[in-house]
Write a structure and sequence with these properties.
Number of helices: 0
Radius of gyration: 14 Å
Strand content: over 45%
Distance between the termini: 8 Å
Largest sheet: 6 strands, antiparallel
Order of helices and strands: EEEEEEEEEE
Number of domains: 1
Strand order of the largest sheet: 1-10-3-7-5-6
């Protein structure tokens, strides 16, 4: 598993969007890999407890230009949670080098973000 590590939802390590804005980030793998899933952990913005991602999509690409949506979903609201659960999304194994995560909506103060993300690949 390729991993972005932020187990304590530390604010300086979060991926955060500007207020009331959708947005995305792209992970470029060193080489094309067989991808078969994703693990995501929402954020509650460290000790501020005021936002997180609600709706999202995950897309994959072999060239970084042509994208295929493989997951569309909703992450649970993490504000006030004593622990931040991982959500695992399994897909049919597909070869790709790029993974794009897009936050399409958010909880609370109009800001989406991600605490941890992982790409399950061979």
């Amino acid at each position: 598993m390729l991993w972005s590590d932020n187990p304590n939802d530390t604010q300086s390590l979060l991926w955060l969007l500007p207020y009331n804005t959708t947005g995305n980030f792209v992970l470029q793998l060193a080489t094309a890999q067989q991808i078969y899933g994703f693990r995501l952990r929402n954020t509650h913005n460290d000790h501020y407890e005021d936002f997180g991602t609600r709706g999202f999509t995950v897309e994959i690409s072999s060239d970084g230009s042509h994208w295929q949506t493989v997951v569309t979903g909703t992450l649970p609201d993490a504000v006030g949670a004593s622990s931040l659960p991982f959500e695992t999304f399994t897909i049919s194994a597909t070869t790709a080098q790029y993974v794009r995560f897009t936050a399409t909506s958010w909880y609370h103060n109009g800001k989406g973000g991600q605490g941890q993300k992982g790409v399950q690949c061979s």
